[in-house]
Design goal:
The structure is a single chain. This protein has 329 residues and is α+β, with helices and mostly antiparallel strands. The protein is 26% helix and 25% strand. Strands 6-7-13-11-12 form a 5-stranded antiparallel beta sheet. A 4-stranded mixed beta sheet has the order 1-2-5-3, covered by helices on one side. Helix 3 packs antiparallel against helix 6.
Length: 329
């Protein structure tokens, strides 16, 4: 008899609703669900899934993620490995550590380098994977090295250069590799100044972003200025900013389509920040995808700009599988 993963992995759960594990509060059930609290347990669960040919996905803080209403017909491994250490100007953190925790704790020690991330949700593993950034800063700025599991589940060490960071991406994201830990180089600074900058960014997010509703953060990437037409550059020349290179903020683009407040089901384009889609309560992934596709179609028709999703999708089909021609009321 072929062994079952439930017999081989103590603590495994079945048919677990995934919505509570995401910041969007959207998503169906996982066939299997396992919380890994050590590196050894995480690697063991991955090897078992691969051996038994069960699809798997490693879940961090659940931000920047949209899960299908149909859930996931495989194993969700929740990365709860939360060890970190600050030694001198070096920070070592395992992938499951909360990014807000690291911003707070490094600030307490007067270490500069992460204050730009004040208010940013999620885990440090997710931040490294997607080279998270805000206020002109990016995760890559302080990375010294990282450790990850490759396709063959071999543990490998990467220098900063080998991580091949780019705008909201990395070698890990492009290849589907699993970030396990990171070492960061920080700088000694004025503790009060560092904490004030982080606090200012936290307050800015509270004031400008629709934090009162579940959301996944920015839905689309900002638009690289060099990748848009001369006409679009002229239209949006008054809002161009450097973050970390010249971009047209997608929020400004969507605002000029007049779509702020547009709803499909219980999903809505935020009236507070148009590059956010919010869950008004009981939103479905299908409605969010339809809304995203409608925004992309409208922006393309009005300004000739192709928007690129920043949110990752987990489940059957994909973000662009639903028809763009569906009637939007």
């Amino acid at each position: 008899m072929t062994p079952r993963i439930s017999d081989l992995l103590p603590g495994l759960k079945k048919n677990v609703l995934l919505a509570p594990y995401t910041t969007f509060k959207v998503g169906g059930k996982a066939k299997y669900f396992y919380q890994a609290k050590t590196k050894e347990n995480l690697i063991r669960s991955l090897k078992l899934a691969k051996k038994l040919k069960i699809p798997f996905f490693v879940l961090g803080g659940g931000s920047n993620l949209l899960i299908s209403d149909k859930g996931f017909e495989g194993l969700i491994i929740k990365n709860d490995i939360g060890n970190y250490k600050i030694s001198g100007n070096k920070l070592y953190a395992e992938a499951g550590v909360s990014f807000p925790t690291l911003v707070k704790e490094t600030g307490k020690k007067g270490l500069s380098g992460l204050e730009w991330a004040g208010g940013l949700p999620g885990t440090i593993g997710g931040a490294v994977l997607g080279n998270a950034g805000a206020f002109g800063g990016e995760t890559k700025d302080t990375v010294f090295s990282a450790q990850a599991l490759d396709t063959n589940l071999k543990l490998r060490n990467f220098t900063k250069q080998q991580c091949k960071f780019s705008y909201r991406s990395s070698i890990f994201k492009r290849k589907g590799w699993i970030v396990m830990s990171v070492i960061m180089n920080l700088k000694k600074g004025n503790k009060k100044d560092i904490q004030e900058i982080a606090a200012h960014h936290i307050q800015y997010r509270k004031d400008r972003n629709p934090m009162e509703y579940p959301n996944a953060g920015s839905i689309f990437k900002n638009c690289d200025l060099k990748n848009v037409s001369k006409k679009a550059r002229r239209i949006f020349k008054d809002v161009v900013k450097v973050d970390p290179f010249p971009v047209i903020p997608t929020a400004a683009i969507i605002a000029r389509t007049g779509l702020m407040g547009k709803k499909i089901g219980k999903a809505q384009i935020s009236e507070k920040h148009p590059n956010f889609i919010v869950n008004l309560g009981g939103a479905k992934a299908r409605d969010i995808i339809r809304l995203m596709n409608f925004v992309k179609k409208t922006v393309k028709e009005k300004f000739g700009i192709d928007l690129e999703s920043e949110v990752r999708y987990l489940g059957p089909g994909g973000l662009d599988k639903l028809s763009l021609n569906e009637r939007i009321n």
